[in-house]
Amino acid sequence: MTATPSRISELTPELEQIAAAAGCELLHIEIRGGTLRLVLDRPEGITLADCEHVSKQVSALLDVLDFGKSRYVLEVTSPGLDRQLYRPRDYERFAGRLARVTLEDPETGKKQTVVARLHEYRPAPEGSPEDAAEVVLADDKTGEHRTVRLKDIRLARLEIEL
């Protein structure tokens, strides 16, 4: 078996169970080159021991499934200080924090990156698709607020503030 995105999707529930059993949440799974990267989180933060424990459990699962027929590297990590925002609830959790947000205009495909404060997350109205949610960004310099659709955000990453 090889580390294909479809195979990882099939394994996601088992990977989430392993993380949950360790008191963690599996935020993200990424396959790049020969690396399978799992990003873990929990409110009080991730320790090296958490990463080590989950890594051993996942490695054992992958060995049982003959995942290693093609060479791969398993990387289990925390999101870090400049963490990427993956899910809608991340925007709620980090409201008030400064972030670097890359937006894509749905009509032109043009991308724009802004550094702004995550002022507010507005969930999709009831009965609307989840991607109808909005994020309000606040410019610290001008005080202006800008509302963007969550589905137009290509990448959002917290900025480190000193």
Summarize the structure.
With 162 residues, this protein is α+β, with helices and mostly antiparallel strands.
Task: Give the SSE layout.
Elements: H1 5-21, E1 25-32, E2 35-41, H2 48-64, E3 73-77, H3 88-93, E4 98-104, E5 111-122, E6 134-138, E7 145-149, E8 153-158
Parallel strand pairs: 2-3
Antiparallel strand pairs: 1-2, 4-5, 4-8, 5-6, 6-7
3D architecture notes:
The protein has 162 residues and is an alpha+beta fold. The chain folds into two domains: 73 residues, GMP Synthetase, Chain A, domain 3 (2-Layer Sandwich); 71 residues, SH3 type barrels, CATH 2.30.30.520. It is 25% helix and 34% strand. It is built from three helices and eight strands, in the order H-E-E-H-E-H-E-E-E-E-E. It has a five-stranded antiparallel β-sheet. A three-stranded mixed β-sheet has the order 1-2-3. It starts with a helix and ends with a strand. The mean pLDDT is 91.
What is the gyration radius calculated from CA atoms?
18 Å
Strand content: 25-35%
Measured as a percent range, the helix fraction is 10-25%
Q: Any idea of the CATH topology of the largest domain? A: GMP Synthetase, Chain A, domain 3
Helix-and-strand structural type:
alpha+beta
Q: Briefly, what CATH class of the largest domain?
A: Alpha Beta
Q: Would you report the number of β strands?
A: 8
The side-by-side strand order for the widest beta sheet comes to 7-6-5-4-8
Quickly list its features.
single chain; 162 residues; alpha+beta; GMP Synthetase, Chain A, domain 3; SH3 type barrels; 2 domains; five-stranded antiparallel sheet; three-stranded mixed sheet; 3 helices; 8 strands; elongated
